[in-house]
Amino acid sequence: MVVTSPRVLCLGEILFDFLSNQPGLTYEQVQSWTPYPGGAPANVACALVKLGTPSGFIGCVGQDDTGNTLVKLLQEVGVNTDGVQRHPTDPTRGVYVTRSETGDRAFAGFGDTDTTEFADTHLKADQLPVHLFETAGVLVLGTLELAYPDSRAAILQALDLADQYYTKVLLDINWRPVFWPDPAVAPPIIREVIQRTDFLKLSDDEAEWLFETTDPGIIAHRLDTVEGVLVTAGEQGCSYFLSGNEGQIPAFAVEVEDTTGAGDSFVAGFLHQLVHQDLKALANPDKAHEIVTYASAVGALTTTRAGAIAAQPTAAEVEAFLQLKRQPS
After folding, report:
1. Residue 325 has what pLDDT?
2. Burial 99-136 (b: 16+ CB within 10 A, else e)
3. pLDDT of residue 104
4. How do beta strands 33-38 and 94-99 pair?
5. What letter would DSSP give residue 93?
6. 90 SS3 class
7. Distance of CA 277 to the CA centre of its chain
8. pLDDT tens per residue, range 210-252
């Protein structure tokens, strides 16, 4: 597949989610697991390409069969992999995910491997593909790789490159305490990165944790450094503050099979619209509402199938879904 210059760069983890085959059971009770490729930044990168926006992934995997499989998947989807590094000894990460009977997931751990002993923790700052930053319009980051010294340094270097090349930054908090050797050190590290962010995406729980409010307008005013804040709340929908425009979008009614990756698809839908409509569109309240509605539709459709990357919709599927929802019942 021909890969064009990325409009969006996604930096962080790519891994396998081992999804429980027995919803409603604890990690110890689960009898079998199905592996699905995932990792929030990789999910966003793949979802963008499926929607029609060229993307690139930056991260580190092991020199193992798992790493080979994931890199091959990115390439088959059409994601630029110039930024993929390989670690000679540490394995590619896998994470075990339990599910409730309603489809909500919980990260249950990493099996027999310590969280600090995976290849993604060794992403090297001095090996970042500078040429990709020269042409990309947006850099997408999560917070998981802030937990480890090497990958944290790489994130800070990527932020420096984003400043140098006028690349916008979207930070998805994606709080997963199981990834942190000491979760107590996370908030000040995360807050430091938030100060260098243009767009902030949080779940309602994450918003309460960091800001003691789920109101995106209040969060934006407190920060005074961001252009937009998006707060997602699952079946309760989402709310936003974008270039001074505030609004709420109710969740689309769909038959949920698996919520894994829904938030990442939401981010991809938002960025897909943003890079095609231009930042100035956010100043128009109707356009801002339309952009977030599109993002919500991409997220909703992802929950109707299992897995994260495998479940992502195409642009045609999203348009057909939105067209159906616009029709009077």
Report:
1. 83
2. beeebebeebebeeeebeebbbbbbebeebbeebbeeb
3. 74
4. unpaired
5. P
6. coil
7. 21
8. 999 999 999 999 999 999 999 999 889 999 999 999 999 999 9
- Expressed in angstroms, the distance from the first to the final Cα of the chain is 41
CA 97 to chain centroid:
17
| pTM of the full structure | 0.94
How does DSSP assign 209-269, residue by residue?
Answer: HHHS---HHHHHHHH-S-SEEEEE-GGG-EEEEETTEEEEEPPP----S--TTHHHHHHHH
CA 20, distance to chain mean position in Å, is 21
Amino acid 56 reads G
- Top pLDDT among 279 and 247 is at 247
Q: Tell me whether residue 88 is exposed, middle or buried, using C-beta atoms within 10 angstroms of its C-beta: 0 to 12, 13 to 18, 19 or more.
A: exposed
Q: Measured between alpha carbons, how far is 304 from 255 in angstroms, rounded to an integer? A: 6
Q: Is the pLDDT of residue 4 over 90?
A: no
* Contact predicate 200/224, CB 8 Å: no
pLDDT of residue 116: 97
Q: Residue 187 in contact with residue 214, Cβ under 8 Å?
A: no
Taking each continuous run of H as one helix and of E as one strand, the counts in the chain are: 10, 13
Strand spans (E) along the chain: 8-11, 15-20, 33-38, 55-62, 80-87, 94-99, 105-109, 138-141, 168-172, 199-203, 228-232, 238-242, 245-249
Tokens 């923790």, located at residue: 121
CA distance 127 to 144: 19
Express each pLDDT in 67-103 by its tens digit.
Answer: 999 999 999 999 999 999 999 999 999 999 898 887 6
Q: Domains of the chain (ranges plus CATH)?
A: 40-60+124-326 (3.40.1190.20)
Task: Please tell me the predicted confidence (pLDDT) of residue 261.
Answer: 86
Q: Which amino acid is at 233?
A: A
Percent of the chain having pLDDT more than 70? 98
Is residue 296 within 8 Å of 238, Cβ to Cβ? yes
